[in-house]
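Regression test case RT-17, inverse folding.

Input:
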């Protein structure tokens, strides 16, 4: 049995949580493979909306094992808040949740370092969520980090104090006031509470399911264009958000990767700083923002909006080996007379269809192709043959340009507002 991977192809916020929830009944195991509580996977069931930050999006389904993989960084305080909210909805979290021993911990001092370093950048801020994710990954790669498995060791508090001291020394270089004690006592209590969960050797756990012919869905966070290696550096996240991250973040070999589901919005959004070639700074951009409710699930910040960027999308498809595309939020474009798609970048006098090394917005002029809008409310459509011709013309153009089929079209936030296309 292979492990299927689901990930975002843009700058995050593509709607991964909803689709994992839709697909979860097909998979006995759903596993998050990277990122931290800077993720915000939104799910909606009727009038109820829930945002998951750390826990995999299969948690609402009975019989589904949910794994936080070793590639994830965990803040015990945020995890506890998330668990409490789920338990209020009668979700048996402790029964369904498994945590890899090799997942790293976010300390209170990681959050302080995040805030201090971001403040020091001034106008060059990258738009960090200030959750401590970057500093936690820095400690991981610097071989200083604390892992979930460490909390089971008698030496854990000594290890914690040693790293805390190192962080305090590091913070001396900043003119930044802070209080570690403000969150430390509760953080240590939640460390003890972590022990109630199923703490496992994640790589053996996941591979055991694969070897016993059980289907596994690997859930990514953020998006491919925020990847530490292949994203719009330095305006990126601190982890590997591409398909390769599923291997390193769960401990599975590349030969075990099966389907790769690539999720994209029918337009583009971005939170925080960084280049965005198709960004709209006009009334159209604001209309998309309001219709799509484009505000960060984790930060609440207004998202920047723009037309679909096929240059960037094809790049993401290439580096991830995407086998199926999933289009989200087609319904947001219901009222537009014309819809645009960037098919190339004009840099100077030359048109480029290849995603460039430096993607500085002021140097790039998008080359757009226009499509006639469908001017119809899509939210109540339940069958593929009811979809308007103009929408399907748009979809088929994307399929032709990318060479990858669009197998799912989302027409609203609820799991029922999803068209599974017949291929």
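Golden output:
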């Amino acid at each position: 049995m292979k492990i299927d991977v689901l990930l975002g192809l843009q700058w995050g916020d593509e709607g991964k949580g909803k689709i994992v929830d839709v697909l979860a009944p097909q998979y006995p195991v759903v596993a998050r493979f990277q990122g931290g509580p800077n993720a915000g996977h939104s799910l909606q069931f009727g009038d109820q909306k829930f945002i998951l930050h750390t826990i995999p999006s299969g948690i609402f389904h009975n019989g589904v094992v949910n794994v936080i993989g070793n590639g994830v960084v965990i803040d015990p305080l945020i995890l506890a808040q998330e668990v409490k909210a789920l338990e209020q909805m009668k979700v048996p979290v402790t029964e369904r949740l498994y945590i890899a021993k090799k997942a790293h911990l976010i300390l209170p001092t990681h959050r302080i370092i995040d805030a201090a370093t971001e403040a020091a950048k001034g106008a060059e801020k990258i738009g960090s969520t200030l959750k401590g994710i970057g500093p936690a990954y820095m400690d991981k790669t610097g071989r200083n980090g604390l892992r979930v498995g460490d909390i089971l060791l008698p030496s854990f508090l000594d290890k914690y104090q040693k790293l805390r001291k190192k962080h305090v020394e590091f913070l001396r270089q900043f003119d930044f006031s802070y209080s570690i004690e403000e969150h430390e006592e509760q953080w240590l209590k939640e460390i003890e509470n972590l022990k109630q969960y199923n703490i496992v050797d994640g790589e053996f756990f996941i591979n055991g399911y694969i070897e016993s012919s059980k289907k596994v869905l690997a859930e990514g966070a953020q998006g491919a264009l925020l990847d530490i290696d292949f994203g719009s550096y330095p305006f990126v996240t601190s982890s590997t958000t591409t398909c390769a991250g599923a291997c390193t973040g769960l401990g599975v070999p590349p030969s075990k990767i099966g389907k790769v589901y690539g999720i994209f919005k029918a337009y583009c959004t971005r939170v925080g700083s960084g280049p965005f070639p198709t960004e709209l700074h006009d009334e159209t951009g604001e209309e998309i923002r309001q219709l799509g409710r484009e505000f960060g699930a984790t930060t609440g910040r207004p998202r920047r909006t723009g037309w679909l960027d096929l240059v960037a999308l094809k790049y993401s498809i290439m580096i991830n080996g995407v086998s199926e595309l999933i289009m989200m939020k087609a319904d947001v474009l219901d009222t537009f007379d014309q819809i645009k798609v960037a098919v190339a970048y004009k840099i100077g006098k030359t048109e480029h269809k290849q995603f460039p090394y430096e993607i500085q917005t002021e140097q790039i002029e998008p080359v757009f192709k226009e499509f006639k809008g469908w001017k119809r409310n899509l939210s109540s459509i339940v069958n593929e043959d009811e979809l308007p011709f103009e929408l399907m013309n748009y979809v088929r153009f994307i399929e032709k340009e990318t060479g990858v089929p669009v197998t799912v079209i989302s027409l609203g936030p609820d799991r029922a507002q999803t068209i599974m296309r017949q291929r």
